[in-house]
Amino acid sequence: MEINHNAPVRVRGEIELFAPPEMVWDWLSRVDLWQDWHPEITNSRWLNRPGMNAEFKWRLRAVLDITSRIESWEERRELGFSGQVWSTTLRHVFRLDGDFRRTRVLSEASVEGSGCGFAPLRALISGQVARTNDLWLGALKTRLESEKFKGRDRS
């Protein structure tokens, strides 16, 4: 899946996690657990069976209710979805690449729609999308690396 590279709002970020791709996939693909590790997601649930074309609902920052559809589902490799928020369309894709001990996660998102055409609003949306994208990656890293070392002596 590709984001809309011509959209007025586009963000990209990447991070390296000290966890294998299958562990990263387990947390990303479990939409029903997003609120357990992502600090701005207050509710998330599947509307049907997880997988390609599945739909889910999630709530971001306790104000944005988003219904999304999976557009890319390649286990341990790629998870992509799109959703509608008011008059805008969000596209978000996570790509995983790694080995048995670490994974590089690339996260890209685009937002387009009538609200993005107005420059001050576009700047606000762009800043929020960039912040949220960074938060996805940081929260995922925190969750996975703390899970990996849970119960171990870190000294």
Number of helices: 3
Counted up, domains total 1
- Tell me roughly what share of residues is in helical segments: 25-40%
Poorly predicted parts: none
> What is the CATH homology-level superfamily?
START domain
Largest sheet: 7 strands, antiparallel
Query: Beta-sheet strand percentage?
Result: 35-45%
By CATH, the architecture is named: 2-Layer Sandwich
Mean pLDDT: 89
Tally the beta strands: 7
Shape: globular
- Top CATH class: Alpha Beta
How far is the first residue's CA from the last residue's CA?
Answer: 42 Å
- Structural class of the secondary structure composition? alpha+beta
SSE succession: EHHEEEEEEH
CATH fold annotation: Alpha-D-Glucose-1,6-Bisphosphate, Chain A, domain 4
Widest sheet, order of strands: 1-7-6-5-4-3-2
Question: Topology, pairings included?
Answer:
Layout lengths: L8 E9 L3 H8 L5 H4 L3 E6 L8 E6 L3 E11 L3 E8 L2 E11 L4 E11 L5 H30 L7
Antiparallel strand pairs: 1-7, 2-3, 3-4, 4-5, 5-6, 6-7
How would you describe the overall organization of this protein?
By secondary structure, this protein is α+β, with helices and mostly antiparallel strands. The mean pLDDT is 89. A hairpin with an 8-residue loop joins β2 (41-46) and β3 (55-60). The protein has a single domain (9-148), classed as Alpha-D-Glucose-1,6-Bisphosphate, Chain A, domain 4. 26% of the residues are buried. Strands 1-7-6-5-4-3-2 form a seven-stranded antiparallel β-sheet. It has helices at residues 21-28, 34-37, 119-148; strands at residues 9-17, 41-46, 55-60, 64-74, 78-85, 88-98, 103-113.
